[in-house]
Amino acid sequence: MAKNILIVGGGLAGTIVANGLCRQLAPQLRSGEVVITMLGTTETHMYQPGLLYVPFGRIREHELFRDQRKVLDRRVIFHVDPAKHIEVAKNQVSTEGGRTLKYDYLVLATGSRIMPQSIPGMAEGAHWFYDLEGARKLRDALSKFEGGKIIVNANAPHKCPVAPLEVTFMLYDYFKGKGLLDKCEITYTYPIGRLHALEPVALWAKPEFDRLGIKYETFFNTEKVDPEAKTITSAEGVTMPYDLLVTIPPHQGAQVIVDSELGKGGWVPTNTKTLHRDGSTNVFVVGDTTNIPISKAGSTAHFEADVLIDNLASLLTENRMARDYDGKVFCFIETGTSTGTYVWFNYTTPPNPGPPSQMVHWFKLAYNRLYWLSAKGLL
Ligand SMILES: Cc1cc2nc3c(=O)[nH]c(=O)nc-3n(C[C@H](O)[C@H](O)[C@H](O)COP(=O)(O)OP(=O)(O)OC[C@H]3O[C@@H](n4cnc5c(N)ncnc54)[C@H](O)[C@@H]3O)c2cc1C
């Protein structure tokens, strides 16, 4: 009997896992001992980090998308048929399209989604760039903007931990380039008592903001947005007026995780090292879907995926796990429209951002194109 590996979610993590397994389990796939199946929601694969550049006209939309079947190894059986119910007690997943798929190993890679509707007035009064429609609307709003109060409002939890800082720096450079800086006041809000969850990043960002005259309001947990009055109010009792509100909406995990009662808020309780779903030996979790208290980022998903590929291949061929995930994360940080820096860290080593440079910015732009090789497992 073939061993069935079922991957739910065809985003960054699921795709890297599928392609990596095809490489490592090539003989077993050829002989029919292993079958790899993926369930996804669309025919297209989107490079989400590219959305950051859409509002500034710095990426063409077509560069964000590829046909998922072309990104995936041909040996993966791919169904555009979203998982509807995941029954870990029965080792099976039922789909919107009426399939019932049995598995020997399950990989949960359903990611996270923005929830602007969870804060009153946010969907109507704010702009964001975390999906294509939002990024397009922000691009249109920016092109018409003639100056005023801009608020960049970060809410937790959210993926890409440095995106709120990046968009703030990029807005600064954008307004500078348009000669509007004198007419603009940029304020950045953050839910905890500093500018970033990672303390070394917060300590690095503060003097950068001070140097550029970017204001900030910390301990700002968004309670409501009033689209008519154009104000944003925090649970801490601060109300601020805005002319342009750029929000990073709070996130949740996928609905199927909530509906299958696999984790509060759609985050699946996960072993920080083995990536097992807590309480399961044949269910693994990878990418944004985990409840691991580290950054939800593409690089996190990628490093976790590399570990999972080794472990699943070892389990299937040698009946043992190969190695642990060490919490590794790497993030480029755009510090404007022509400079950048980066951080890397893991469970034991904190991040240490360096001085911004044009070279790091170019590396990030290069990675935006190399991503497709990375998704195919070639990088
Ligand atoms: C604007 C922006 C900028 C970013 N910048 C960076 C960056 O610079 N660096 C970085 O490292 N990360 C960045 N990220 C974060 C990165 O894109 C995510 O962390 C990464 O995509 C997570 O991978 P994932 O596979 O867990 O989730 P995703 O890539 O979101 O994939 C999840 C997949 O699961 C599918 N799915 C959901 N429900 C179901 C279901 N019921 N059945 C089947 N499939 C389902 C979804 O459709 C999706 O395709 C950025 C994200 C955004 C939005």
Secondary structure elements and pairings:
Blueprint (H helix, E strand, L loop, with lengths): L2 E6 L3 H13 L1 H6 L2 E7 L3 E3 L18 E3 H4 L5 E4 L2 E5 L4 E4 L4 E3 L2 E4 L3 E3 L7 H4 L6 H13 L3 E7 L8 H15 L6 E6 L9 H14 L2 E3 L4 E5 L4 E4 L4 E3 L2 E5 L2 E3 L1 H5 L23 E3 L12 H21 L10 E6 L5 E6 L12 H18 L4
Helix pairs in contact: 1-9
The chain binds flavin-adenine dinucleotide.
Flavin-adenine dinucleotide binds next to helix 1, strand 2, helix 9 and strand 20.
Descriptive notes:
There is one protein chain. The chain is α/β, with parallel strands linked by helices and 379 residues long. Helices cover 30% and strands 25% of the residues. The chain has two domains: 3-111 and 254-328, FAD/NAD(P)-binding domain (3-Layer(bba) Sandwich), CATH 3.50.50; 115-251, FAD/NAD(P)-binding domain (3-Layer(bba) Sandwich). The strands form seven sheets. A five-stranded parallel beta sheet has the order 5-2-1-9-19. It has a four-stranded parallel beta sheet with strand order 13-12-11-17, with helices on one face. A three-stranded antiparallel beta sheet has the order 6-7-8. The chain is globular, with a radius of gyration of 21 Å. The mean pLDDT is 97. Bound molecules: flavin-adenine dinucleotide. Residues 8-14, 39-41, 48-49, 51-52, 82-83, 109-111, 129-130, 159-160, 163, 254, 256, 287-289, 296-299, 301, 331-332 line the site of flavin-adenine dinucleotide (FAD).
Give a quick precis of the structure.
The protein has about 375 residues and is of the alpha/beta class.
Helix content: 25-40%
CATH architecture of the largest domain: 3-Layer(bba) Sandwich
CATH topology title of the largest domain: FAD/NAD(P)-binding domain
The helix tally amounts to 10
- What is the average per-residue confidence, as pLDDT, rounded to a whole number? 97
Which strands sit side by side, in order, in the main sheet?
A: 5-2-1-9-19
Shape: globular
Number of domains: 2
Strand content: 15-25%
CATH superfamily of the largest domain: FAD/NAD(P)-binding domain
As an assembly, this protein is: single chain
Helix/sheet category:
alpha/beta
Look at the structure and give the CATH class of the largest domain: Alpha Beta
- The counted number of beta strands is 21
> What ligands are attached or bound here?
flavin-adenine dinucleotide
Characterize the main sheet: 5 strands, parallel
